[in-house]
Amino acid sequence: MASEDLVGELPAPSSTRRIILNALLSSSALAFLATVVYPVIRYIIPPPGAESDTNSVVAGKVKDFPANTGKVFRFGSKPALLVNGPDGRLRAVSAVCTHLQCTVQYRPDLEQIWCACHNGRFDLNGRNVAGPPPRPLEVFDVTVRGDDVIVSRKA
Amino acid sequence: MIRRSYRKSLGVGLREILAVSVAVAVCTWGSAVLGEDSCVTCHAALPDALGAPVEAEKAGVHAAAGITCADCHGGDPTDEGPTAMEPEKGFVGKPSHAGTPKFCGRCHSNRAYMRQRKPELSTDQEDTYYTSVHGKRLRQGDERVAVCTSCHGIHGILPVSNAKSPVYPLNVARTCARCHADPAYMAPYKIPTNQFAQYQQSVHAEILFGRRDLSAPTCNDCHGNHGAYPPGATSVAAVCGQCHAVNMDLFVASPHKKAFDQLGLPECVTCHGNHSIQRTSDEMAGTSGVAVCITCHTEGSTGYKGAAEIGKTLSELASLLSEAKQQVSLAERAGMETLDARYLLQEANEALVQSRNLVHSSDPEQVKKAAAEGQKKAATALEDATTAIEEVSKRKRMLAIPLSLIGLLILLLYLKLRQIEGAQRGLAS
Amino acid sequence: MRRVINWFDDRLHISALIDFLSHKSVPTHHHSIWYYFGGVSLLLFVVQIFTGLLLLFYYRPGPDSAFESIQFLMARVPFGWLVRSVHSWGANLMVLAVFIHMFSVFFMKAYRPPNELTWMSGFVLLGLSMAFGFSGYLLPWNELAFFATKVGTDIVGAVPVIGHWILMLLRGGEDVSGTTIGRFFGIHVALLPLFTGAVLFFHLALIQRHGITPPISKVGQPSPSLPFYPNFMIRETMVWLAVIGVLITLSTFLPWELGLKADPFKPAPAGIHPEWYFTFMSQTLKYLPPSILGFEGEQVGIIGFGVAGFLLFLTPLLDWQAKRGNDSRFFTAAGVFALAYVAVLTSLAYLKPY
Q1: How far is CA B293 from the centre of its chain?
Q2: Which residues of chain A have a Cβ shorter than 8 Å from any chain C Cβ?
């Protein structure tokens, strides 16, 4: 404390009391400072699993998707479906059925995207072709970077 | 001879004769000089029913395809006088009511012709028509039943995809209702006329008219169009199953199928009704007041117990899910992360949809199994959200640390101040 | 230890500063408590700079990332909720402290010569604080902020002649959009801090120059005073600590909600309101008839507030009595009226939102 000099010149009523008070003051000031510094340090350290980008996700490795298969993966808070069509082309759509929000899947036998809840069917471009779904599925972009298959929302 | 037939068919007066004479004069000039279709030039100048088709036909699909009056009605459009309409020139005039299907069928049932002009259109309408109740009665000489023109219109026929067409999905019900909702007109047939009124109250109509979602069914989606026929009791599920396929499969495999057939109950309609079909609710299954199960299953029976179980399972899952949804959005508004919980809710919702489907299996075990999955997911989501919200109150307890330090510091500073000011006073005195 | 202190002191002349400060004094009287609010405003400004800097670590402006980054900050970053909450509450408390500071100076007539420029710079600081609040409100890009900004900039747009031009300048287009976030962000974190820093320095330098002014009623009386250092400073530190306590308690018990992400195409939800310190103005505009003496009611209201603000700014030049050391009853009455007006209209805005 910078007040020492000034206070020091004054005749103190009790030197020990003064020293104890100063010690208490500086230690609790330090403790208070710590309660400020601790959250700040915790705050500036980036949390594990840096910001989940809600606009793109790694759906898996290329080898996870043989031709004529599909795999449901998580995209933010919703499931999405990556399909490697019979033509060997990767396509990704939202796996949330536009009818009653069930999760759709790829049916290799139909070569279509199929919803188990009400037999809704979509083609590989997400277009509703049969059953109750009123709208096509949202279509995502697929890019392959190295081994990773990256699915991203259309800009 | 021609003149007489004219007068006979139309009962024309002097005024009309005058008009016709003027028209003939005008059209003679028109077709001679401009080389126009004499049907159009002459009829355009004629009043009422004889002139109206000229304008009306222009808007239609036939005019757009270059089909002329003579293509349907015969006659010679290059002849400028009334002689154009001599039977020798192929003139057929206006078809009779009973002759209409054949009249249209000259082209529409001609596969070779249609393939050239409009290959995507089928050519079985006339054949199918005669399998319908309308067609059958027409053959029996009933002139009051619907023929092609009753539904499609006459001149200026529009394609089904045109929103103004009377057979556009949004207009079909009203078109059928022109006859079927008219008690006086339907009286001789002794069939109800309230179908249209009932349909308008239904969930199908709500989706079709309310949301303008054309995938929702209207009259012809269940009854057929050209081959319109009421579905029999044992084929109801097949009709509904066109769209509600999963429910149909479950129903057909269930013990209800056989029982209903034996009792002559009309399958889906027994529980859901027909024209006035309503949005289903979880209360429809079970043993509550609005439950449909208790119309047959009396208290104490196995069926009654099963119904009670199914109803309870559904309502429990539905209420747990809605509770979880609320809690999750509460946590979300408070700024907590809810990605996991949202994903679980999505899965739980799917389980609820599946369990609702499985009601049609009439098997409480299947329903319970599907619902249990959803219960688990919804409960986890609820727990996650609750933990997230509790986290907020944990923060409140943590606040005690800095607050007590602040209190202590203020107290110590106060003591320090007293000490300093005491010393200052001592110095001053 | 003493050698180290002396080494620094030789170079920094801290003891000279302390000497200067201990010779400064603060008048003591039964209105002394108001002297703390200037310091409280300063403390809260520092807190805002500090927490604002921390928020910059994670905030990403833009319509697709602003809300998401705040969501991430609050849910995943340790103490992120606290930093954001303290920043939001701190902003509100700061405006409140600035208001109290201004009214106390007004009623003490402490703007009298030679403090005219101190008052005027203080008025500018009030305006800057409100601009901080207005621009910061939009940044989380939630529903409430979006529509409040829409309405707020609409009002700016109703200013005669230059209104539409300013509106376009603020929004970066005809509508509140992603572009607006960019502009508001730039204004909030660069433009305003720069201006405020300069004006604040000027304001504080003037106070050092002229000392602390006693209330006009005490002029000519011998008045007791307190050394600024250490007596007033320890007291001020105690007040500051208490304010920090209140701030973190509010932030923890009433954490600032994130709300729902803004959707420009959704109709405005019920209960849209600006920050409370704007409500007395927005509420007034609501009560004005559509047309006053042939002018658009809203425009009359806006011009009215503009004139009132300008008069407030010029108060030291207008108050002739104060210049001569007399307490003007007229100005006291005007101040009471203004305070009552703000209080009544603000409470009306919260009690009768529609």
Answers
A1: 27
A2: 2-3, 5-7, 39-40, 42-45, 47, 49, 51-52, 54-55
